[in-house]
Amino acid sequence: MNLFIGLCRGARGLPIVLNQQGYTDFWIEYKFSNSLNQDVVPELILASELKAHSLLFEWKSGANLDHDQLERYSHVTTDDLRMRAMLRGRSADHFDVTVVAKGENIERILIGIRSGPYTFPVLIVAGSKILLRENSFACQELNQIFGAGLEIDWDIVPMSYFPFDRESPLWMLAEKIIPMILEYMVRREPRISLDNIARDVVPTWTILGQGYRSEMKTKIAEVIRQAEQYEFRDYLRYNRDMLGSFGHTWEITNNPRDLRDKRHTAWRKLQSLQRNFLEALRTGRRIEPQGELPFPGPGESETS
Length: 304
Hints:
elongated; 11 helices; disordered C terminus; Arc Repressor Mutant, subunit A; Trna Endonuclease, Chain: A, domain 1; three-stranded antiparallel beta sheet; single chain
């Protein structure tokens, strides 16, 4: 995910070929219906008005393909992309559903593609290259780019565009969320809203599909809930009264910036609490809190 977004955005050190072809990261995990009113959810959609072409990506970490999923993709049309996925201008004129797989799984992947038979291009990740292994793109420039193999230095791929996903453990989210809370304190923000912190810690938040946003907001809220209930209970307080109007919101009740004396000591304490919190999420070992603070369950209303 981060690699292809970086390729579109011209990230430093990565090849600029997709950027030069006008591709932009348009949607992440956006659900829409195909011509048979069946749902499809590409993991990433790239779109280029310059090339009148779009790419609908599916990553395959294993060797098995979901044949029902492939069949649903085979019934996606340009009208579906324009009217239901809301692609702009000429970018929906032509498109390719593209499977990205590991090189060691390619034989099994090809069996599944050929049994369709499906005309979806198959890219494999083999060492330092991404290589077109089966079928071809509607955009000839992509056949040239990936046909020869696109060389990637994996050590410099930026991981910040999409820093975590639905499978990420909570400690991985906390590595981004807690520093952002401390930044809010530095800026003297009086409160934290779930909507704002989600946008701040996930730079691609605005192109996430709505369903995926809801999943990620649940995980982000759980991290803040645990921080408020345990290590940061002296600094954060959930504001139930603001739920209906502003969604999940936490008040910053104790800010070292407000201290005249011992400010540096207070910041060091917060940094220590951050380390303790991350370790507790990793290991599951933590001191029980003094009582519980109110926090609504997943079924309670929240603004989107």
